[in-house]
Structures are given as C-alpha cells and as structure tokens.
C-alpha cells in the first residue's frame, strides 16, 4: 500500500504549527483573560422584551443615569446586548431586591416590557462553580489517562493527554481572543471536546495496535504512517459531518448558544488535527528504536495477556 501522507516524516512541521497556535492562544488567554459571565463571577442578569424596538444608543444614556442613582451599581461591570430589535439582555454586578425594583422601574420610560428571564448568582456561588469546573476537567483527564494506559500503553496515554491539552488550550484561547462570555455551557463544551477528541484518537490508536501485530518489513515510523492513512478519511468524514451540524446551530441557534457552539467548533477542528498530526508523531518520538524493525511478538504477547485476564475475570 502506497502511503499518501507522510505524517511521521514531517512530524516536526505539524508539531511546530501546533506550538505556534498554542502560543497565540496562550497569549490571548493571558493578555485578554476570560470574560466570565455571572455563572462564575456572580451578578444579576435580566432578559427583557420591549413592545417596541430599541437600540444601544438609546439605552446606554438611561442606564448611565440609573448607575448614578443606585449606589454600587457600577457601569463598568454592566453588559448590554440587544437582540432582534426589542430583546435586551442586561448583566450587572449583584444587586439587592430594592435596587432591582428601582432599576426595572426606571427602564419603563422606554415603554412596556416583559421579563422573559432573570438570573442571580452570588459571588461565592460563582467561585464555587469555577472550582467545580476545574475539578471536573482534572478528573476527566485522569480517568482518560487511566483508561488508555489499561487499553494500550502508558506512552499512548501520555500522547493522548498531550493532544487533549492541545485541544483545550486552543479552544479556551480562541474564546478568550474572541471575548465571548464564559458560562456553565462553556464547561459542557470543553468536556464534549474531551470526549470527541479522545474518541477520534482511540480510533487511530486501535489501527496502530492492529498494524503493529502484523509481521512486516516496515520500520516503526512507516507502520505508524500506514496506520494513519488507513483511518484518515474516516476521521475527516466524521469531523466534517459533525462540523456541518455545529455550523447549522451556530448560524440559527441564537446568541445564547454562541459561546457553546463556537467552543465546539474550534475544539472539533483542533481535535481532528491533534488525533492525526500530534498524538501519533508523539508516540513515534517516545519510541527508543524509532527507525528499527518492530518486534511484533511483543504486541501479540500483550494481547494474549489481556485475553487471559478477561477469561480469569
């Protein structure tokens, strides 16, 4: 079989490209930071539907007046978004019930409106959610390492977790650069990326393991290239199909899903790339005898040990 893409031979190029994207992502993350929503920073959110259309130019001066009247109503922490002409989303720092009543009463000068959604999260609750989100990601990463170590080898697990870190950094950095608001749906998107990316990586790893069991005169690097080229079309087709669905939701799903869907979009692209161009080259770099002939018996023995353990259980 003629190999179409020389992944291993050009592995330094693929990894260098990823490092450049990671540096840009980290730069955006540290320079701009994450735009935490009320889920993590605490505060109040009001979604209002006015009877007539309204613009930010009309709304902001009135909100500035309200800020001067209400004590601790900081205009710098205020975020206003107008959707579909008469739908307004206003986010502020945490305010009391009396301040909320005065705030809503002053907005009546624009005409009648209906409160379609109202959320309030305390600062301590937001901090707890932030800690829980980080803990969830850490536990997920540890479980993935354990699973791949049991199913394959430890070096496969290390390569997989490094590929996952690649995906998460790029996804989070991309959202930081775009300035999108971080909410609990964002954490769900990151966890979804972890699951999607590791599934794609395992498909590649399974093919590598099957190829390594067969006797061949090819070197370790050549066998890795052969394995990737056998599954690359499948991986790309799966990713394209998923991306089409994600793009449809991004275009027609509304502003409330923007952060979630954009994170998925970036993560799926990064995950598809890392499964093919990062995880496998890392396995090659971890192999001591990279350009030597493969000891196929070693992989056959590992399979026999796994089957024996299954029978004993």
Written overview of the protein:
With 313 residues, this protein is α+β, with helices and mostly antiparallel strands. The chain folds into 2 domains: 11-37 and 125-312, Multidrug efflux transporter AcrB transmembrane domain (Multidrug efflux transporter AcrB transmembrane fold), CATH 1.20.1640.10; 43-121, Alpha-Beta Plaits (2-Layer Sandwich). Helices cover 68% and strands 10% of the residues. The chain contains 11 helices and 6 strands. The strands form 2 sheets. A 4-stranded antiparallel beta sheet has the order 3-4-2-5. Helix 6 runs antiparallel to helix 7 (184-213) and helix 6 (154-178) packs antiparallel against helix 9. The longest helix is centred in the last third of the chain and has 33 residues, at 220-252. It is elongated. Mean pLDDT is 77; it is low at 304-313.
Helices and strands in order:
Layout: H1 11-32, E1 35-36, H2 38-41, E2 43-50, H3 56-69, E3 79-83, E4 87-92, H4 97-106, E5 113-121, H5 123-151, H6 154-178, E6 181-182, H7 184-213, H8 220-252, H9 258-277, H10 279-286, H11 296-312
Parallel strand pairs: 1-6
Antiparallel strand pairs: 2-4, 2-5, 3-4
